[in-house]
Every structure is written in structure tokens, then in C-alpha cells.
Design a protein that fits this description.
The chain is an alpha/beta fold. The protein contains 19 helices and 26 strands. 30% of the residues lie in helices and 19% in strands.
């Protein structure tokens, strides 16, 4: 009898799963086949109702204990299922640049498997720099396939916390300073992952903009800054990307921890945005059973025995005592079951692949598309492969692995092509010599200094080499050590670390022909900028790093990346930092976002401070001419779209791409507004010298600001200015329009 009952339950589950698979596939086919008109409103509704009915069926078979067990970890990266009912466990993995090596059940140590190496994809700052939503989709799909191969149900990424200061140790994992850019890239990225039947987990919701004191710092900010700057990318991830899960942050917001923040989780996320997925806590970010009522669904990483997690026995006890309504639990379980039906209980998801040439190719494409040529005096780049040429490659980053370190995003890459290796493989005629030049020292992820060398002798050796070479290619920047681009701490200096600035000065005395390959996820100070001819911002590029760098340095690929954040000349030019320590990093208890909505280029533009390199900046080996920029009309009403067109001409007969950027601003607003904000962009590719017409559309509704007096978006009437250009500081045409 008992046996029969179980079989029957399993059968029900099976039907639920097959049924869901059908829906999963029909929706993904529909997504791919966008041409279909939206005549499906009622069938979709029916489908939703059916899923909900199935979820209710399963729910009704679960005991209170079984339900509570679904809401918290059973190991470092998994949650329990219900074995008797055939409900599987959920397995998660970091995220976001690849699938992290397998971690032990109860500790942070790696298991040491031999088959868990993966493709390391470029860091998300690089993806942001591509300004290429299509590539974001390919990246998402590929990393999702690797997650499937590794049997993961939730991939912990992408991250979309806004770049507020260059000091944040985790900026490299995010998509820059602009909410519109991050939104446009996060949506296809999520859809790509989830096409595999793997849930994306968008993080860290919200306002985790610094690592210093991240576990307790309380963020105070205006509602406008929250809605206009810090939430839009999360909102897009949920409303347009349909993310199946989201991760709460460590920090507090207006006095409450993010993972137990009723306003953020219940009101905004689940209420206003209709989020139907699962809220997963960051690891160890829950501090009380209040998190249950405040909207958290799954608790992970608490330093306690699993049964003693806040959402385990204490939650169960509170329900039994009637302190928490069982409905609160049921609502979580429904979300968790929905996620399972979308992932681990969907029998038709992809099987996954990893380390395959297609993924390496996607990694290389994203990498080359995202490299930004910042400066190119005397056409230092590209460097031709000439047998009479001797290149002195100098710098620790030429050989230092960058997929290791940095915190939870570190990867066990199947291979990582270093910049030096990539250059040596590409340059068959020129002579390439190498000297390390400086060392980041010794430590967990560091490398030891070569025997008998210290910083002085390293530097002297490099200077000697530079004196003998035709040119110096300095490959430096930051790395993934603590206090660099790494989780759990912020940077401690804005300038280049490990004596690199001094080394650059010394090198420039013996060789005037210096180019810099800057490997970092953050802006750095450049007091030595006049001493180098060319600068290429190359981020952390993953497995294919060296090959991609060689592609662009050699000119095989023409750079087309654009900066997703501004580079201040000096640190105090950054908005948050200009307001002093209460605004960053805070007093260890509170941090006040005093720059309000004026983050990044919004600040530089409005305050007329010249950045070292502006948001959206990036050079090419060819020149583009933009002409004939116009809007389709001058007068618009609230439901209109503004259609902006221009002609773009590639003036040289080489491949290349330009990003046309549309910013819009309102000068005579009744509230403070930035001079201009990004509202549209398009990356246009050219195969040779040709001219193309580019069209970008902007919904008028996008021009609304968040009006705190009515707690809603408000579209002001009147005059607006449309700025069309190829960088936030390279505006080619301004056009005034009117909104009625
Ligand atoms: C990080 C998350 C990560 C989690 C699991 C936390 O410390 O903040 O981003 O997903 O650990 O490794």
C-alpha cells in the first residue's frame, strides 16, 4: 500500500515534469521565434494556471518538515530534495565567469576532482565593454551549457551591482556604472543561461557596492538613486530576463539586512516586479528567522549546523508555535518547486558541454570585442610582426594566471593562455624578450620571486632589457590578490601597485616607445600617462586571454570595446569619494550615498570635471565618420518612440566596429537631473570601407524620473536634448525635442 502510494506520487511528479518540459520548450521556441505575434495571451495564462495547479498538487503531498527542509542548505552548495517523492536536490555553483571547481560538502576546500576544469570566460566588465547584447546571449548560453555538463541547477551569476567607486574589489564581476548598459546586457545573458534549463541567480540584490565592511555596512540613499541607478539592471533581469533566482546581498539597506529586507524583497521584487523565482541568500548573509517573513526563500552558507539555520529548525518551531503563518512557508516552497520544474525536474534540458572549441571561441570573441584601446599616440598599436623588430615584454601580468584568485569567481580553467604565450604564438618574425619587472609578492595566490631577485633587481633587469629593444610592451595593472580586484576587500590605492608607476618612469628613460596592456577590472591612476604611447584596457579575459590580446595587439582584430565606466584623473574626482569618508567607505556602520543619482559620467558631465577616460570611450585602428544624425520628429507624446538615425562611414578598408551612443537629458527640469543619460546604443560592424545607416529607438517612457513625492515614475513635459555620439565625451550632434 505504502509502496503503491509512493509510486503514484512519483508518477504524478513525472507527469508534472513532462508537462512542464513541454511548456519549457514551447516558451523557448517562442522566444527564439520572436516573429510570432503576441496572440498567445490566453494560452500562456492557461499554462501558468496549469503549472500552478501542478505545484499545488506537489505541495499538498509534503509534510511541514519536508517543506522547511527545502528552504535551507544541506551542504555548502546544495539543498535537500524529498527522496520519497522523487523531488531532487538543487545544486548550485559560482559563477559568474565559468563554473567553479567542485567544493567539499562541508567546507570551502576543493574536492580535487580531475574532471571539473572548465572554460574560463572573460569577466563581466569585459562583456559590458563589448556593448554587444548578442554576444552576451552567446556567453550566457555557453556558460549555461558548462553548468549543465557539471550538473548544476543554479549558476550564481551574473552580477549587476553598479560601479560606484574604482575602489570596490568586486567591480570586475559587474557590468559597469550605467544602469541602461547593464540592463541591456544582463537580459540576453540570463536568457542564454536559462535556455539550458539552468537558473541564473542575479546578484547581489542590492547595493553591494563595496567589499569593505560588506557584512554589516548599512547603505543610506535616496529613493531616486535606488530606483534610477541601483535597481534598473535587477529589474530588467527579472521583468525582461525572467531570471529564475536572485541572490540577496550581505549589506544592510536603510537599517535592514538585504536578505531580510521586506521593502526590497516583498514590496519591490515580489510585488512591483512580479518576481516568480527564488530568493537565495548570499553565503552567511542571514541573521535571523525574520528573513522568512521578509521574503527570503533559501538560506545558504550560515555558520551553523544545517538544521540550525534560521530557516531550518527555528523556522519550523516558529510555524508550529503559530508565530509565522504556514502560508509564508508554502509561498517559498511553491517558488522552489517552480524553480525545480524549470531546471532539475525538466527532463528535456540540454545535456551540456564543456571545454569545447565553440565555448573557447565565444570566450575569445567576447574578449576581443571587449578590449578597449584607450590611447594610441603615433599609432603605437597595432604592432606589426616584423623580423627587424625586438619587443621587450615587461610585467608580471604577462604570465600571471588571472582565473585563479579574486574570491568566489575563481575558476579551475582547463587552460589559460597567458599574454606572453599568446604573443609568442602570434609573433613568428619579431623577437620577443621577457622580463618580469616587478612582483606582487608572496601569498596565497601570489607567486614567489624568482631566486636571487628582489624588486630592485627585477626592475634593473627590465630596464636593461628595455634599453636593448625597439619597443616596450608593458603588461601590468592589478591582479586577483586580496586588496586588488578581489572579493572580501576593497583596493587600498588608486595608483598602480607593486612599484609599477616607478618602473614605468624608469623604463621611459631608456625607451620612448612604450605601450601598456592594462589588465584590471577597475580604473587606475595614470600620472605617467604621457610617458606611454598606447594603452589598451584588457580586463580579465579567461582561458583565451593571451590569444585575444595578441589578436588585438597585432591588428588581426580591430579593437571596438568601449569603457563601461569612467576613469577619474585622481580618486577625489570620483563622485562618491569627493564627499569624503562618510560617503565612501562610510564609518563602518553607515555609508551615505551623497552623490545621489550622479554616479559615473553623470557626475563628470554635470559637474564639468574632465575624466581621464570617459564612459563609452574606445578607439579603433580605423576612423569612423558619423553624419546626418537626426530624430524622426521634434514633438513626441508619452507612448511614442523616438527614432534616431545617422550614417556611419568606415573610412579605411579594414574591418572594424563602432558603437553609436544616444544620450538624452533635460536641462530645465524641476528636479536635479544629470546633463545626459544613456538611453540607446548600437554596435555597428563594418567589413571594409563602407557606409551604413544606423537606427536606434528610445521609448519616450524611458525619460521619466522617479518622483519621490508620488513614489512613482514621472514623465516631465517640455524640452529634452538628444545627444548622439561615439562616447559620452564625443558627442557629434545635439538635437532638441519636445515631449507633450
Ligand atoms: C559571494 C557570492 C558567492 C557565494 C558563494 C559569497 O561570498 O558574495 O557572490 O556566490 O559566496 O560562493
Amino acid at each position: 500500500m505504502e509502496q503503491h502510494h509512493l509510486t503514484e506520487n512519483k508518477l504524478k511528479l513525472y507527469f508534472a515534469a513532462s508537462f512542464f518540459a513541454l511548456i519549457f520548450f514551447s516558451t523557448s521556441v517562442n522566444c527564439q521565434n520572436n516573429l510570432q505575434k503576441d496572440t498567445t495571451a490566453s494560452p500562456v495564462q492557461i499554462t501558468r494556471n496549469k503549472i500552478d495547479t501542478e505545484i499545488e498538487n506537489i505541495l499538498s503531498q509534503l509534510t511541514l518538515e519536508q517543506k522547511v527542509a527545502l528552504c535551507h542548505a544541506q551542504s555548502k552548495f546544495s539543498t535537500k530534495g524529498v527522496e520519497q517523492l522523487g523531488i531532487p536536490e538543487i545544486w548550485m555553483s559560482d559563477g559568474p565567469h565559468g563554473v567553479r571547481a567542485e567544493i567539499k560538502w562541508n567546507s570551502w576546500d576543493y574536492v580535487g576532482w580531475t574532471d571539473d576544469s572548465v572554460t574560463a570566460f572573460p569577466a563581466l566588465t569585459c562583456l559590458a565593454a563589448t556593448f554587444n547584447p548578442e554576444l552576451a546571449g552567446e556567453y550566457g548560453f555557453s556558460v549555461g551549457e558548462e553548468a549543465r555538463y557539471r550538473k548544476k541547477d543554479i549558476l550564481l551569476g551574473p552580477g549587476v551591482n553598479i560601479y560606484r567607486t574604482p575602489m570596490n574589489g568586486r567591480n570586475f564581476e559587474y557590468m559597469g556604472e550605467d544602469p541602461f548598459l547593464a540592463s541591456k546586457l544582463v537580459v540576453p545573458f540570463i536568457k542564454g543561461i536559462q535556455k539550458n534549463g539552468v537558473a541564473a541567480c542575479v546578484k547581489h540584490f542590492a547595493l553591494n557596492n563595496q567589499e569593505k565592511w560588506r557584512n554589516h555596512i548599512n547603505v543610506e540613499l535616496s529613493e531616486r538613486a535606488l530606483r534610477e541607478i541601483y535597481l534598473p539592471a535587477f529589474k530588467a533581469a527579472v521583468v525582461e530576463g525572467h531570471a529564475w533566482s536572485i541572490m540577496g546581498a550581505y549589506n544592510k539597506i536603510r537599517g535592514n539586512y538585504s536578505c531580510q529586507n521586506d521593502y526590497l524583497l516583498n514590496k519591490i521584487l515580489k510585488g512591483d516586479w512580479n518576481f516568480d523565482g527564488v530568493v537565495v541568500s548570499d553565503w552567511g548573509a542571514v541573521h535571523s528567522t525574520n528573513a522568512a517573513a521578509a521574503g527570503l526563500d533559501i538560506e545558504m552558507g550560515t555558520k551553523n549546523y544545517y538544521d540550525n539555520y534560521y530557516l531550518a529548525n527555528p523556522f519550523l518551531a516558529a510555524i508550529k508555535k503559530g508565530e509565522i503563518d504556514e502560508k509564508v512557508l508554502d509561498e517559498k516552497v511553491k517558488r522552489i518547486l517552480r524553480l525545480m520544474l524549470r531546471t532539475t525536474m525538466s527532463p528535456h534540458r540540454t545535456l551540456g558541454r564543456k571545454n569545447n572549441p565553440e565555448h573557447h571561441n565565444v570566450a575569445r570573441k567576447v574578449a576581443t570585442d571587449g578590449i578597449v584601446l584607450l590611447k594610441n599616440r603615433d599609432n603605437f598599436f597595432p604592432i606589426k610582426d616584423d623580423k627587424n623588430l625586438t619587443i621587450a615584454v615587461i610585467g608580471e601580468n604577462a604570465t600571471k594566471p588571472m582565473t585563479v584568485g579574486g574570491g568566489s569567481s575563481e575558476l579551475k580553467a582547463q587552460f589559460e593562455i597567458s599574454p606572453l604565450q599568446g604573443l609568442k604564438e602570434r609573433y613568428k618574425n619579431a623577437t620577443i624578450l621577457y622580463s618580469m619587472g616587478y612582483s606582487s609578492g608572496k601569498g596565497a595566490w601570489d607567486r614567489a620571486l624568482p631566486p636571487k631577485l628582489n624588486q630592485d633587481s627585477l626592475s634593473t633587469e627590465a630596464v636593461n632589457l628595455a634599453g636593448k629593444a625597439d619597443m616596450v610592451l608593458f603588461i601590468g595593472g592589478l591582479n586577483k590578490n586580496h586588496f586588488q580586484d578581489s572579493e572580501g576587500g576593497d583596493r587600498i590605492q588608486y595608483g598602480l601597485p607593486f612599484g609599477q608607476a616607478e618602473l614605468l618612469n624608469r623604463l621611459s628613460k631608456v625607451n620612448k616607445n612604450i605601450g601598456l596592456v592594462l589588465i584590471s577590472g577597475n580604473a587606475v591612476e595614470m600620472p605617467w600617462i604621457d610617458k606611454v604611447k598606447g594603452i589598451m584596457q584588457t580586463w580579465y579575459l579567461g582561458s583565451m586571454a593571451g590569444a585575444a590580446i595578441a589578436d588585438v595587439v597585432s591588428g588581426d582584430v580591430n579593437p571596438s570595446g568601449k569603457l563601461p565606466f569612467s576613469f577619474p584623473v585622481k580618486l577625489e574626482d570620483n563622485a562618491a569619494i569627493s564627499f569624503g569618508s562618510s560617503s565612501y567607505p562610510g564609518d563602518s556602520i553607515n555609508v551615505y550615498y551623497k552623490e545621489d543619482i550622479l554616479v559615473g559620467y553623470r557626475w563628470f558631465d554635470t559637474k564639468k570635471i574632465k575624466p581621464l577616460f570617459a564612459f563609452g570611450h574606445g578607439l579603433s585602428y580605423t576612423t569612423f565618420e558619423v553624419s546626418n544624425a537626426k530624430t524622426d520628429k521634434r514633438n513626441y507624446s508619452r507612448n511614442d518612440q523616438i527614432k534616431i538615425t545617422c550614417d556611419v562611414k568606415n573610412k579605411e578598408n579594414i574591418e572594424g566596429a563602432e558603437v553609436i551612443q544616444v544620450y538624452i537629458g533635460k536641462q530645465d527640469s524641476k528636479v536635479n537631473r544629470p546633463i545626459k543619460e544613456l538611453k540607446g546604443f548600437k554596435k555597428v560592424k563594418f567589413e571594409n570601407a563602407e557606409e551604413k545607416q544606423v537606427t536606434i529607438t528610445v521609448d519616450v517612457a524611458q525619460l521619466a524620473y522617479f518622483d519621490e513625492t508620488i513614489s512613482n515614475w514621472h514623465l516631465e513635459e517640455g524640452k529634452y536634448t538628444v545627444f548622439i555620439g561615439t562616447a559620452s565625451d564625443k558627442i557629434i550632434k545635439k538635437i532638441d525635442i519636445n515631449i507633450k
